[in-house]
Amino acid sequence: MDFKINLQLFADAEKTEKPTPKKRRDAREEGQVLQSREVTAAFILLASFLFLRFYGKYFISSLMKYMTNVYNTIENIDLYFHENNLIIGFTKNIAVFMGIIFPILLIAFISALIINYLQVGFLFTTKTLKIQLNRINPIEGFKRLFSKRALMELLKSNLKILLIGYTAYSFVKKNILKIMELPRLETTILLKNFASLSFSFVIRIIIVLMVIAFMDYFFQWREHEKNLMMTKHEIKEEYKQTEGDPLVKSKIREKQRRIAMARMIQEVPKADVIITNPTHIAIAIKYDIDSYEAPYVLAKGVDIIAENIKNVGIENSIPIVENKALARALYDTVDIGDMIPEELYEAVAEVLAYVYSLKDNY
Fold this sequence. Notes:
- By secondary structure, this protein is mainly α.
- It has 14 helices and four strands.
- It has helices at residues 7-13, 21-29, 37-75, 77-80, 83-120, 138-145, 148-174, 176-181, 187-228, 232-243, 246-267, 304-315, 324-333, 345-361, and strands at residues 273-276, 281-286, 296-302, 320-322.
- A four-stranded mixed beta sheet has the order 3-2-1-4, with helices on both faces.
- A hairpin with a 4-residue loop joins strand 1 and strand 2 (281-286).
- Helix 3 (37-75) runs antiparallel to helix 5 (83-120), helix 3 (37-75) runs antiparallel to helix 9 and helix 7 packs antiparallel against helix 9.
């Protein structure tokens, strides 16, 4: 027994087609956007570092005042624990500390907003908050645990630890003597040297994070595009939803044509004359001096439609005049319901005059 397999079914099930604009819009509304957390973290750290680079002197000066205030408190510890002094001293220390740390937190917050806006744009959706039962399905959870994305996240985390660890090790190894000398230095010099070493270390860490962020963004972009890929069947279904089923649309158009044809044929008995080709074209003309400035076309058609127009004309005793050139000119230049153009006035007037003379004779 021979079995025939329709390979087209498998082709339709493969996601081989690029996502349509509608697919991208729908995915965005569902919260599926291209975003890298590594890029966000790296740029927040970079913005904070650049701010500290220019804010450093004020930061160190404020920190020195804060530490001086703490040391003075320790020297007068008995007075500090007096009820009023305790409240005043605690409030003052908190105010100084917040004054130092708040600008850094503000810069970090603003930079997070900016980098997320650059990646995602403005997006507000509540669909990501909906409860999804597959999230609590242990089988689906097991699949996600050992998915390609989970593996890449694990590799990325390990790579980050290795690179940052190696960077920290090489920095400490290179600057071990300077680090060992720090406890022996005076407070002011200690803070300056510590700040210099910290800035050098942070620069190296930022470079490492930028490299990781670039790699992660490329990976996230590939995964995002892959998840948006569509099958040929999905594209067909989307087209049906947006444009309508082609078969249904063709049937609707055919029905509309039939209705329009029926209405047009119903207007033929009102015509004054039917001008023919004589076998292929038929044009029904009406001249209503009270409503129109010139004769107008009631109906027109070729082949079968022309035959129907002539048959209705014969049934209603409407004169049929053969004029090949005029019939062709009217069919090509005048739509149903429109008045004839000026260049055809004379030719049509002659036909109408001939028809009216026939009526007068009868």
